[in-house]
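Weekly modeling sync, notes
Attendees: S.R. (lead), two postdocs, one rotation student

Agenda item 3: backlog of single-chain predictions. S.R. asked that every request posted to the team notebook include the full sequence so nobody has to chase files. The rotation student volunteered to paste the first one in as an example of the format we agreed on. Action items at the bottom.

Example entry:
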Amino acid sequence: MCGIAGICLLRGRGSVSVETLSRMTGILRHRGPDESGIYVDDRVGLGHARLSIIDLAGGAQPIPNEDETLWIVFNGEIFNYPELRETLVYRGHRFRTSTDTEVILHLYEEKGSACLSELNGQFALAIWNSKAAELFLARDRAGIRPLHYVVTGDRLLFSSEIKSIFQDREIPRRFDPEGIDQVFTFWTTLPGKTVFDGVRELPPGHFMQVKYGDVHIQRFWDFPFRSPGDQLDWPLGKIVDTASELLLDSTRIRLRADVPVGCYLSGGLDSSIIATLVRRNFQNDLRTFGVRFDEERFDEGAHQATMVDHLGVHHSEVRVANREIGKHFPEVVWHCEKPILRTAPVPMFMLSDAVRRSGYKVVLTGEGADEIFGGYDIFLEALLRRFWSRQPDSRLRSLLVGKLYPDIFNDPRLQSTLQSFFRKGFERHDDPFYSHRLRWENTSRNRMFYSEEMKQATLGMDGLGELERCLPDDFPGWDPLAKAQYLEMVLFLGNYLLSSQGDRVAMAHSLEIRLPYLDYRLVGFMGRVPPKWKIFGMQEKYLLKKMYRDVIPESVIRRPKYPYRAPIAEGLLTGEQEEIRTALSDSAVKKAGVFDPKRISRLVEKVQRVGQASEVEGMAIAGIASTQILSRQFIEEFPVNGNISLSPTVFVDRRTNPAGWIPECSFTNT
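Predicted structure, as returned to the notebook:
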């Protein structure tokens, strides 16, 4: 992976600041420590920080086409680039490098925005057409790679990360109350939003065209679910064979690299399958990596050991103590660039650091399987609540709930709470958010901690209404499971799992993650698979288990779904967590202006006294602490200065009258 940045003059007035662009690129060095490059002309500046994975010696960016009228900066990987390159060479294109980046450029030269439909990969890219004076930005289908932008006056600035955009001193740095409120409802912002005023995110599966001051954004892909009448009517055996072939090929092409590729191995089903496919089909010397917790209720070490013994791989572990959660939390917030309601990104941040120090730049992970194969409890909850409403006298109701939540069901103190949860709104089957509304209402209880100013600023905001307006036109006719899967993919997957718990904490240590389950061919196929093969009775991920029952240990196949979690209150409010205590102090809370200092003080005091937090209190502690830290890092004390030095590998200067600051570099092209 890499980092990209750029400045575009929308109406041709003024000049591109090379110094600003250099700072924007320099602060992305963690995303690309190997090389850097800058292109600048009278209308556009492009910056690139490179993590070299393919064509290690010859892949410095920006890269031009044959006549140097097109220039590209690219963050990501195109896994089918050898096949695309072969076709382009046959059609007469000449290549300077062996990179996937140059393949994109030549494909765009032929097909324009239509080239995106042929790319199998994870990407954020910018292409400048100097002849047509047109800038083209695009982001991959699932949102694996980030891309942010700001339109201010006569300029458009874009970058992989917000901290890069804020290197321009003219960009105001303040919270957007609507974005903050969305996080404290949906766990994240809605697609396209951020928590900073004026800063936008190009949504997954979209591209942007900028020409003569006009900014046009268009969708090129969406998660392809079908109404019941359009689903596959195939025998289960054929579905199993097809899905298996697609996942195997997805894994195969994601091993393409000029550096070693490892695998994350949590001990759960999803990562175990990927590691098994790699070990049995492609790499005998596979290296795997996993997280262990000192606190037993979070630890999956025994399950990791089962798979390590089964596969015979070289496995490395990172052990996480509670005190380390708080120690690394501020740095994780810096990289996530948004409030987080969980501490789960912290262990992944620590694991990424360990993997990178082991000499690996690339790992395969198991994210995406729960979303496309139907693996989350929230999917089962929705199906159970629907069953409860339609079968009020069924004796199966209690048995099914007990199977889903045995610990809660067997605790007499929580029986009434559980009954109330499943009955709440369970008859509103036409609610587009039937599967998720209870979760969001539970999360939004944390609004009670808002300051009066924040309450006034968010009064009348309708995040649910905005989300409903973004749903596909045929959404009401979808199967209930498809609706739940879609909501999970466009919100939690793209804006949290692949971001805060994925790209951001991995690229903090210059580590690229690749996700075989999110190959668009497999995602598209699973969108057509009938829901009965995803959840069979009360068995989640039925199809995935059927596909690999013969190669994965039975204990892993039969193991109940165990969500990845990390300590919250124990990690943030115990030990010597000075930075977090300062962030939650009355003076700091009052200065940020988002929360009520008295309410925060009472919450912290209660949790410290009891020694643990409820689900809602845990989300509140993490969300409030991360918001406070974010305010200090990005608003109150943000480093906008000339100390972020950059000596680019390549500096291409095509300005008519070069003037002002010019970076020192090893190669200049004018």
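Discussion: group reviewed the output briefly. Residues 2-222 form a domain with the Glutamine Phosphoribosylpyrophosphate, subunit 1, domain 1 fold (CATH 3.60.20.10).
Action items: rotation student to repeat for the remaining queue; S.R. to check formatting next week.
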